[in-house]
Specification:
Layout lengths: L3 E6 L16 H4 L9 H10 L3 E5 L50 H14 L3 E6 L3 E3 L32 E2 L23 E2 L18 E3 L4 E2 L5 E2 L6 H15 L4 E4 L7 H14 L4 E4 L7 H6 L5 E3 L1 H12 L9 H6 L7 E2 L23 H9 L5 E4 L30 H7 L11 H19 L2 H4 L1 E4 L12 E7 L4 E7 L6 E8 H7 L6 E8 L5 E5 L4 E8 L3 E8 L1
Parallel strand pairs: 1-2, 1-14, 2-3, 3-10, 10-11, 11-12, 12-13
Antiparallel strand pairs: 4-7, 5-6, 8-9, 15-16, 16-17, 17-22, 18-21, 19-20, 19-22, 20-21
Helix pairs in contact: 4-5
């Protein structure tokens, strides 16, 4: 069965009491809870066609919110982004976000119960693991006693030591970056300063740096030609193994690894097999932006799936925005031949601008052919970001996050359009306008199609563009997916204005390649999208041809039979 992942920003899932006050805190703007993911909620997600849920923002991170429980004090606001804080500035690797718990003292149990509810609905659970950096005021109050605290045994007089967990700027205190408002705040003290998560080895980073984080040391001396010291195994490797094992023991099924490429691949080659000794089915997804290193992280790092942003997302977004020709899509399969099953496809996530935003397509229908492509082009998983199926625009100005076409990850907020569907836990389509209902129905149809047709997750790929150069290749793209049991034809029209009348060539070579017999006719029955069945008829000894009409910003899928 094909893997369909639903990424949900946990804090924003169901916010019944949020007021959407600019730069508001938890008391005014509210937060979703673990318990809001009821059996009904999870059933609705499963019923849409998803097999996995990536709960973003689970592990406790730095925040400006304090709680009565000892150890849950607020972090210094000068080193926190937003009131709620970034989920990628981890505060305690062994704890969950207290914002998400109805009973803060039993927050881990509430998370554990959520994992069990997911499994009862046949949904697998993915959470973030942030191995490259932690927040500036990292302090684990929930770590098992036998595990040493990060930095507890560091020699802070050394800028680098393979035995240290952090990198230091000896003798210099950390200075808040220029441009960060510290008016009315108490002094922030950190001595000596630590290097930032984005490898800035200065006591005062820039405002644009990851100044709220500190880099973890995996035995790479960045100041001396990135020399490596992996023998003996650095202490940080053991600490991160302990974190992964802890959460695997809690029942999670996979980890989305934040900025995996900023951690040496040798570490992944060491840690992933060790985790799988006890948890053989554990999934590892790498956020990685260097295509030249894709194969290395698959083969040496043992990752199951890699983010396909730099090739798939970037090219398809450019096609949707009419910046490049649809023919450029062929570059993707050529570059990824042999690794396509490892590529995770998406058109939205928490880092990217919403499709419906004014910064991207504005009209969500423009991305429909792109989503069809993401869902059918190759064997790997498909990911949808919560609210994408409802044309959420991400055009709010929440506080730390400006009006940027993204849904905030730093602020307490209520995503109003999404809340209409959630409807206080009732999950009611009738709260949506007809246009939104239609879009959501299209996503559901596509997700279910992926799970129904085995050719999607196990079939081969055959590009038809090489014999159809007469088509309007600025907007049209076509290909075949095939297996021993099935063959489907995918036709896409990225043109937002005009129908495309297509005379499509189907070469005899393709018939042989996809396992059909040489014949004078091939039937193409529509299985997704509005289109009549088509019969390919013999054109000459080399090919057959069929006539198609594809509406603007759409696509159709046909099953090929004889």
């Amino acid at each position: 069965m094909s893997v369909n992942i639903y990424q949900v920003f946990t804090r924003l899932f169901r916010n019944d009491a949020g007021q959407n006050i600019y730069n508001g805190d938890l008391s005014t703007n509210g937060s979703s809870m673990f318990n809001h993911f009821t059996e009904k909620a999870l059933h609705e997600i499963r019923n849409m066609g998803f097999s996995h849920v990536w709960f973003t923002g689970i592990i406790r991170h730095a925040s400006c919110t304090s709680f009565d429980e000892p150890g849950l004090e607020a972090d210094h606001p000068a080193v926190v982004k937003g009131k709620a804080g970034s989920p990628y500035a981890v505060k305690d690797f062994f704890d969950v976000v207290p914002d998400l718990a109805e009973d803060v003292g039993h927050r881990m149990k509430e998370f554990y119960d959520l994992v069990n509810r997911c499994h009862k609905q046949d949904l697998k659970v993915i959470i973030d693991f942030v191995p490259n950096h932690v927040c500036r005021q990292y302090q684990s109050i929930q770590k098992p006693e036998k595990i040493p605290a990060l930095g507890a045994n560091d020699d802070t007089s050394m800028s680098f030591s393979a035995a240290n967990n952090f990198y230091y700027i000896p003798g210099e205190p950390f200075q808040i970056p220029e441009g960060i408002n510290t008016e009315g705040l108490p002094p922030y003290y950190e001595m000596p300063a630590k290097a930032t998560g984005n490898n800035v080895f200065e006591a005062q980073p820039q405002k644009t740096d990851w100044y709220e984080t500190v880099k973890l040391n995996y035995g790479v001396d960045f100041r001396h030609d990135s020399a490596t010291y992996f023998d003996p195994i650095p202490q940080t490797w053991y600490r991160m193994y302990e974190v992964l094992h802890f959460w695997a023991h809690k029942g999670v099924d996979g980890f989305r690894i934040d900025m995996a490429e900023m951690v040496p691949v040798e570490f992944w080659g060491w840690v992933v097999p060790r985790i799988r000794e006890d948890f053989p089915e554990m999934l590892f997804i790498a956020e990685i932006y260097k295509p030249d290193e894709y194969r290395k992280y698959i083969e040496q790092g043992h990752f199951d799936w890699l983010y396909d942003k730099e090739q798939f997302y970037n090219i398809v977004r450019a096609v949707i925005e009419e910046k490049v020709s649809a023919s450029a899509i062929s570059d993707i399969w050529k570059a990824q031949e042999g690794i396509d099953a490892h590529m995770l496809r998406f058109l939205e996530n928490h880092d990217e601008q919403r499709i419906a935003s004014e910064f991207f397509a504005a009209n969500p229908e423009k991305a429909i052919p792109g989503m069809l492509l993401a869902a059918t082009m190759h064997k790997g998983p498909l990911m949808v970001y919560f609210g994408q199926e409802l044309a959420e625009q991400g055009m709010d100005e929440e506080g730390f996050s400006g009006k940027d076409g993204k849904t905030t990850i730093f602020d307490y907020w209520r995503v109003e359009k999404y809340q209409k569907w959630v409807n206080g836990g009732r999950f009611d389509n009738e709260m949506l306008d007809q246009k939104t209902k239609d879009l959501r129905a299209a996503y559901v149809e596509l997700l279910r199609f992926r799970q129904k047709y085995e050719v999607i997750h196990s079939g081969g790929f055959y590009d038809l563009m090489w014999v159809n150069q007469h088509l309007d290749t600025d907007y049209v793209y076509c290909f075949i997916r095939h297996s021993d049991n099935q063959a489907i034809l995918v036709l896409l029209n990225f043109d937002t204005a005009d129908d495309k009348q297509l005379t499509l060539n189907l070469p005899v070579h393709a018939l042989k390649h996809i396992g059909l017999h040489e014949t004078k006719t091939v039937n193409a029955g529509a299985v997704l999208g509005k289109h009549n069945s088509v019969v390919f008829k013999q054109k000459d000894n080399q090919s057959l041809e069929g006539q198609f009409k594809i509406s603007p910003s759409s696509g159709c899928i046909f099953e090929l039979t004889q």
